[in-house]
Write a structure and sequence with these properties.
The structure is a homodimer of 317-residue chains. With 317 residues, chain A is of the alpha+beta class. Chain A folds into two domains: 178 residues, Ribosomal Protein S5, domain 2 (2-Layer Sandwich), CATH 3.30.230; 129 residues, Alpha-Beta Plaits (2-Layer Sandwich). In chain A, 36% of the residues lie in helices and 27% in strands. The first copy, chain A, is built from eleven helices and twelve strands. In chain A, strands 1, 2, 3, 4, 5, 6 and 12 form a seven-stranded mixed β-sheet that branches. In chain A, strands 9-10-7-11 form a four-stranded antiparallel β-sheet, with helices on one face. In chain A, a hairpin with a 5-residue loop joins strand 5 and strand 6. In chain A, helix 2 runs parallel beside helix 3 and helix 10 runs antiparallel to helix 11. Chain A is globular, with a radius of gyration of 19 Å. Chain A starts with a helix and ends with a strand. At the A-B interface, strand 5, strand 6, strand 8, helix 7 and helix 8 of A face strand 5, strand 6, strand 8, helix 7 and helix 8 of B.
Chain lengths: 317, 317
């Protein structure tokens, strides 16, 4: 028995955090990780190449057992097809992220699966290589290739992804003292449906406005310029189309802004909404958002988090 | 005579650099200054409030003498209307930037005018205040309020402007060793006409692609990431519509890229094209671009510049 073979793992478990995609001004390209909740995946080496899903637990029931229809399964299949490790993967998924919440649950399952499987390989891949496999998995659930949840779940923090075929990832610094307040109303929204309502075109004036805001937001993050972040934290393209799907949206956003939020918008495809604020304002922003959802007849869960994370990682099984 | 009144200037001259707007991925919001050429304006205090244009010299003939129709004059009128200094401005304009070249000539005249006039005020204004007056001037020539030439000419360097009514300006660092190569084919293009051909909408997929590139470009600048700058230095929205107005566009761009350019696109509304490259590649990029324009039957002027500038400033009259 060689030293190498003795170190081979038979089984590994990874945690991948939830994430808030779009971040108002970065539709399909920007997201941040939310590491107080996430999915776990335990991948076990099997003799026969291929992928099986042995089961699941947690907050989501009835996860598809067909790996082609399962986000973790499809990501693992993409990995198998590409690197042909000479053995198979069995996955057991532990869902911590509610389905249809806008918190990147399908991305997290795909990311946890590839990070766990990576630990079983003789030659582990880089995170950028894993990103492509996880993208394939997420496409099963969202209906299209996109990375704005995958990248932050995998890398951690506020993450910009440029390109799909040859993605490049940039972790953007978030000024110290900023907190994200996430409020999840109890309501299911399908990502596919939330994409389906979007108009196929963007008005030129909205395009210019949104790009200015994106530029301002990113510049503000790199330079600790809270005034610039606040001034540019506004989605003029997507939010007005999707907000109709969220009961109480206008009141929740107004409540957050009136209580000192730097910005407040939809997390991914929704219905979760999030705000950014300074630490000192986070509790009152959260309370105001929760109260506004309650006034609209919606019970909620909420979280206040710092946007700092190492992204997906191996954990004890 | 008080100390204050004795320091009052009767006349001041300011230089405002040329600029390249849009920078591929920042249509109407981004531009960089080009300080090897520019316009000068000498403003003289007159007894009667109001604005006169006493004359002009330089590369542009037949500048309108009616201040309402002159970019410098309109900017000075906006300043008069706002601050009511109790005296008037006469302007003499020295044009160093060719008309209809895509190098921000109308912006530079407006900027030079307000910077010179500012030196005559008892209480000089900030550059951000001057920006609003210069914008009014530029609108005379371009037909709309925009700031992507005004801001770099006034502040210097690579400049992002967020907002029109309450503009915020961000000077974005450009990695050391980068040079801008500008090649101006002898051909007049009207900014109004070049805006007129643009479609009123942007396809959602192009919108996403362009925002990814903008985010990548700005992130790349803040982090000295030349690979990211190169990967994201591509306009998928405006360039394909306007490039038809520039003879040889495809060949010039291809020549620049084949010789090591990080990116190559239209300067503002054109017809000037510019590339960015490392210092070591700048001469061969320039030579290749010039040769491609010549093959298309166009004579050219060209400049190689570092993107560093203090922006508009007072100079000896």
């Amino acid at each position: 028995m060689t030293a190498q073979s003795s170190s081979k793992l038979h089984k590994a478990t990874a945690f991948a955090p939830a994430s808030a995609a779009n971040v108002a001004i970065g539709f399909d390209i920007l997201g941040f990780s939310v590491d107080v909740l996430g999915d776990k995946c335990t991948v076990t080496r099997t003799d026969k190449p291929g992928v099986t899903i042995s089961g699941s637990s947690g907050v989501v029931k009835d996860i598809p057992r067909d790996p082609e229809k399962n986000t973790a399964g499809r990501a693992l299949l993409a990995m198998q097809e590409s690197i042909k490790p000479g053995f198979g993967f069995d996955a057991f998924i532990e869902k911590g992220i509610p389905l249809g919440s806008g918190l990147g649950g399908s991305a997290a399952s795909a990311v946890a699966a590839v990070v766990a499987a990576n630990a079983l390989l003789d030659k582990p891949l880089t995170k950028l290589e894993l990103l492509k496999f996880a993208m394939q998995g997420e496409a099963v659930s969202s209906g299209s290739l996109h990375v704005d949840n995958i990248s932050p779940s995998l890398f951690g923090g506020l993450v910009l992804t440029v390109g799909i075929d040859n993605p490049r990832v940039k972790q953007i610094p978030v000024p110290n003292g900023i907190r994200a307040i996430l409020v999840h109303p109890h309501l299911f929204l399908s990502t596919k449906a939330a994409r389906g309502i979007l108009k196929p075109d963007v008005k030129m004036s909205d395009f210019i406005w949104q790009t200015a805001n994106l530029g301002g937001f990113i510049s503000g993050c790199y330079t600790n310029d809270l005034d610039m972040i606040r001034a540019s934290f506004e989605d003029v393209v997507i939010e007005k189309q999707r907000s109709q799907l969220i009961p109480g949206f206008d009141a929740v956003r107004a409540a957050a802004m009136a209580n000192g939020a730097l910005g407040c918008t939809i997390s991914g495809a929704g219905p979760t909404m999030f705000a950014w604020s300074l630490d000192a304002d986070a509790v009152k922003v959260r309370d105001a958002m929760v109260a506004a959802f309650q006034a609209a007849g919606k019970e909620t869960d909420d979280w206040i988090v710092a946007i700092s994370s190492t992204g997906a990682c191996l954990v004890p099984g």
